[in-house]
Specification:
single chain, 270 residues, alpha/beta, Rossmann fold, Helicase, Ruva Protein, domain 3, 7-stranded mixed sheet, two-stranded antiparallel sheet, 11 helices, 19% strand, binds S-adenosylmethionine, rRNA processing, RNA binding, S-adenosyl-L-methionine, transferase
Amino acid sequence: MKKHIPLKKFSQNFLIDSNIIKKIVQFIKPDSSQVLVEIGPGLAALTNPVCNLVDELNIIEIDKNLLEKLKKHSFYSKLVVFCQDALTFNYLTLFNKKNKLIRIFGNLPYNISTSLILYLFQKINIIQDMNFMLQKEVAERLVALPGTKLYGRLSIISQYYCNIKILLHNISPKCFRPVPKVDSTFLRLTPYTDNSPYFTHNVQVLSYITNLAFQKRRKTLRNSLGKIFSEQSLTKLNINPRLRPENVSILQYCQLSNYIVENYQKYTLY
Ligand code: SAM
């Protein structure tokens, strides 16, 4: 069979470091009782060792040529193959098959990783966990805390939905072929169920407010959110109107969004 030429448009940087691969599979800890879904199996760096541990693995791969290559492997019979775009895939079908929360993993195509994570948050109720290899900078934004440069809308929305744990950090570009220009991080996002530290009436309002606040990162809340919140109402919520958006905690953003829902239900904001 012809050698595969990696496609840039699909962010094809294949994992080749056996030590990293082994650690990732150990972290995922797959077992046959789980509904497992791999995004972008590529040349099977993770698919193969995971199949050694389970009876069935769902895979979503956009590149038909890569799927053809998988056919020659003995583990192919264990795969349930979806030749589709992970960004539009209907994950509910996998949950419905066994009425079981799904576990998603993958060395993600870095060009779509943020959009994909945001898309998956919309299906959060059917997900047990997500174990992803990401570009280091994206991972750092996901876990960033208030008061830091990387803290922003992505951190707030992600930490609102999930507990996030970095499992392997600073993974060298040398662990991939072709060699990417960036370092990588492997992490786990575990959706909160009834143990969430945060509450909002409406996550779309939370998303709207954080968008508005971080559009003007250097401005104070008094300026950026001035159209919706008077200084008085911010003070009433115990939030200093002179704070910059990066110094406002997730809990405070939730408070702000709840205030809108409770007081301005008549207005369409989004
Ligand atoms: N898992 C393999 C590994 O670790 O070597 C490949 C990882 S590579 C970074 C990303 C994989 O995702 C490629 O196989 C690529 O074809 C696939 N891919 C890219 N965009 C995709 C999309 N929108 N939906 C599904 N798969 C996609």
